[in-house]
Amino acid sequence: MFAPASPRFLTPADAREIAAKLPRTVKRVGVFTDHPVEEILSVARLVGLDIIQ
């Protein structure tokens, strides 16, 4: 969850650390609110997201 107002908010670095521990069979989903497309794509690449919402 990459929405700062959310109690589930994660920094991209924290999300990357968590994602690295998951098996590749688990899809990585990023939820964004009102972020520029460039920022979303940057985070998606850093974290290794499979799905963007």
Count of beta strands? 2
Specify the overall morphology: globular
Radius of gyration: 10 Å
Order of helices and strands: HEHE
The low-pLDDT segments are none
How would you characterize the largest beta sheet? Answer: 2 strands, parallel
Biggest β-sheet: strands ordered side by side in the sheet: 1-2
Structural class: mainly alpha
Number of DSSP helical runs = 2
- Amount of beta strand: 5-15%
* Residues in helices, as a percent range: 25-40%
Question: How many angstroms separate the termini?
Answer: 10 Å
Our count of domains comes out at 1
Mean pLDDT: 95
Description:
It is a single chain. The protein has 53 residues and is mostly helical. The protein has one domain (12-52). The protein contains two helices and two strands; from the N terminus they run αβαβ. The chain has helices at residues 12-20, 37-47; strands at 29-30, 51-52. Strand 1, helix 2 and strand 2 form a beta-alpha-beta unit. The chain is globular and about 30 Å long.
Question: How are the SSEs ordered, and which strands pair?
Answer:
Blueprint: H1 12-20, E1 29-30, H2 37-47, E2 51-52
Parallel strand pairs: 1-2
Supply database-style keywords.
single chain; globular; 53 residues; mainly alpha
Short note summarizing the structure:
This protein is mainly alpha-helical and 53 residues long. The chain has helices at residues 12-20, 37-47, and strands at residues 29-30, 51-52. Strand 1, helix 2 (37-47) and strand 2 (51-52) form a beta-alpha-beta unit.
